[in-house]
Design goal:
Helix content is 33%, strand content 28%. By secondary structure, it is α/β, with parallel strands linked by helices. It has one domain: 3-Layer(aba) Sandwich (Rossmann fold). Strands 1, 2, 3, 4, 5, 6, 7, 8 and 9 form a nine-stranded mixed sheet that branches. Helix 1 crosses helix 4. The longest helix is centred in the last third of the chain and has 19 residues. It is globular and about 40 Å long.
């Protein structure tokens, strides 16, 4: 949906660590999209409702990678979305996770796949934001905030062309 020539974007994210790293990535994405002239609403998964979805032209969903897959909160948000009712709506996915020691699994890729099955049109490759540190001292790896900003700038370009 386009309002006054501006694409309206919904960001829904789950963030579970005390450091709220996924929330930080969501904030970077939202701020960058706003800087590019897009209207953005951002909600923690528990504060979002699927009924608002039709008010937006694009949804960006993110969450932490936990046990090699998306978090329970991100999964529950996707479970509540109506099957095919939002078909063709623009979407993108992101995550945060420890990607080391040959470990695989990606919340972003899982979210991307679920959104595709629901009929969403994916506008960017999933953003995987790398974190490091011990359990209660996790932090974004150096350069990850910039990577998220660059990803959001590319998303903004696509959305501006769609508006």
């Amino acid at each position: 949906m386009v309002r006054c020539g501006r694409m309206k974007v919904l960001i829904v994210y789950d963030s579970v660590s005390p450091m709220k790293l996924t929330a930080k990535i969501a904030e970077i994405i939202g701020t960058t999209l706003k800087e590019k002239g897009l209207e953005v609403d951002s909600y923690f998964v528990l504060d979002s409702t699927a009924t608002k979805m039709k008010d937006y032209g694009c949804v960006i969903v993110g969450g932490p990678t936990m046990a090699f897959r998306m978090s329970k909160g991100a999964s529950q948000f996707l479970d509540q979305l109506p099957d095919k009712e939002l078909s063709g709506m623009l979407a993108a996915a992101f995550d945060t996770g420890i990607h080391a020691y040959g470990m695989s699994g990606s919340a972003a890729k899982g979210i991307d796949g679920r959104l595709k099955k629901l009929g969403f049109k994916m506008i960017a490759a999933p953003l995987e934001s790398h974190i490091e540190g011990k359990t209660n001292q996790l932090r974004l790896k150096e350069g990850e905030a910039g990577k998220a900003k660059n990803w959001a700038q590319e998303v903004a370009k696509v959305l501006q062309n769609e508006a």
